Amino acid sequence: MSGTETAPDELYERLAAYEGRSAATAGVGKDPVNLPMIRHWCEAMGDAHPAYEGPGAVAPPTMLQAWTMGGLSGHGDRSEAYDELSALLDGAGYTSVVATDCEQEYLRPLRPGDAITFDAVIESVSPRKTTKLGTGHFVTTRMDVLADGELAGTHRFRILKYAPAGRPPKPEQRTPEPEQRTAEPAAAAPRRPRPVVNRDNAGFWEGVAAHRLLIQRCGDCASLRLPWLPGCAECGSPEWDTVEASGAGTVYSYVVMHHPPFPAFDPPYAVGLVELAEGVRMVSNVVGVPYDKVRIGMPVRLEFLRVDDELELPVFRAGGEG
């Protein structure tokens, strides 16, 4: 650990003392619920449900967090307690962060014109956990979202603050004698980020391991959905089974990433939104073609790419029959 050394039990006692303290108070959404944002969301998600347009429209329930986000300029209403908790974890060496999962509860529909406010609390801090990413603590915050002062929904968001596994210690700053000098060992190749696997999407990743791209199918209305969700966006049913994708698809949209750089990737590179033959869409890499040759409408074909000893990913090769 960096900073002041603290015994794990003592550190956890200090972290747990923040449970129940405010993370944000009287936060205000930067915009009221509005039709343009609803339209952009539905276009991006491919959701054409008639409840989200026209007179009497409501916002998709899964937009709950969107109305509370601060954008690039952020929010100025985060509490001192949350900043203190983050600083305590940073000081103990848990300087990396990854979002792991969220849970939402919807109490009433949000409608255009609703003014959004919110309060947030540090709900829990876990004991020290060791994961494939590294060792650290899970921090869960609960946000209560209000529309015109009425509780409309609850959003729980969980992150892992951790020290990355296998991070080499800093070498001592000294110059070895000539007879002690040896060649520097080759640096280990950076790894792709690990997918977050939870109870809602574990079956998808089990399918990938078996070289099958599985799409959820609602057990009541038979609507298909990807990415996986715990319930149907069309009828709300929690019942589902799966169908296997044929592997054919087309590039529905794409972006070329130049910045920010990430050690496991070599920019510029294209990130594609691929529409599968079954009608659902997913984000993945388009391989087999230079980034500047990717085009909307390009036919692609599913394949599985092993990126390291532990991780295999579904990607799409250009030139497949759509």
Q: What is the terminal-to-terminal distance?
A: 52 Å
- Secondary-structure class: mainly beta
Q: What is the molecular shape?
A: globular
Specify Rg, calculated over alpha carbons: 23 Å
User: Which assembly state applies to the chains in this document?
Assistant: single chain
Count every helix, treating DSSP H or I runs of 4 or more residues as helices. Answer: 4
Q: What's the rounded overall pLDDT mean?
A: 87
Series of H and E elements:
HEHHEEEEEHEEEEEEEE
Helix content: 10-25%
Low-confidence stretches: 168-176
Which strand-content bin applies to the residues? 25-35%
The major beta sheet can be summarized as:
6 strands, antiparallel
Question: In total, how many beta strands?
Answer: 14
